[in-house]
């Protein structure tokens, strides 16, 4: 089992708690994978193993709904832009 997966399992109770909190606030589409991806790219910059466990838990609990929604919005824009590039490539091949 790699280090990131092991760390995620250790942090699962905090992730579940944050997921439940967002759902209570009305954000019903929150997923554990989405939270993990947000935390890794925003709070931890892809290096969660460099922090202590209590710092990671603190980061999870300090994540606001606004930060998470901003992350999802930006990810959606990036995916849409990537899809647009693919569409342009296919159209260019066809024409």
From TrEMBL:
<protein>
    <submittedName>
        <fullName>Post-transcriptional regulator family protein</fullName>
    </submittedName>
</protein>
<dbReference type="Pfam" id="PF13797">
    <property type="entry name" value="Post_transc_reg"/>
</dbReference>
<dbReference type="InterPro" id="IPR025716">
    <property type="entry name" value="Post-transcriptional_regulator"/>
</dbReference>
């Amino acid at each position: 089992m790699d280090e990131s997966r092991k760390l995620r399992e250790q942090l699962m109770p905090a992730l579940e708690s944050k997921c439940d909190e967002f759902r209570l606030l009305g954000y019903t589409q929150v997923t554990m994978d989405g939270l993990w991806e947000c935390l890794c790219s925003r709070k931890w910059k892809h290096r969660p193993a460099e922090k202590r466990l209590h710092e990671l838990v603190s980061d999870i609990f300090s994540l606001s709904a606004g930060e998470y929604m901003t992350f999802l919005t930006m990810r959606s824009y990036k995916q849409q832009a990537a899809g647009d590039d693919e569409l342009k490539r296919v159209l260019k091949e066809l024409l």
